[in-house]
Amino acid sequence: MTWVQLFLVFIQPFHNETMKKEQVYSEFLHDIFRQIETERILSAQ
Asked: What is the pTM of this model?
């Protein structure tokens, strides 16, 4: 095992967790914008 692999053992779990949080946040925002478009909240009257 090289020092890089050893380093990645400690970094990788946090990196995956961060990526998952960003993915969930992105999907959440996408759903909000889709709802705004569906309800025509921002459309001019």
From this structure: 0.53
Q: What is the 3-state secondary structure (H, E, C) of 1-45?
A: CCHHHHHHHHHHHHHHHHHHHHHHHHHHHHHHHHHHHHHCCCCCC
34-43 contacts at long range (C-beta below 8 A, 24 or more positions apart): none
CA 16 to chain centre: 11
pLDDT in tens for each of the 45 residues of the chain?
677 777 777 766 666 677 788 888 889 999 998 998 888 887 766
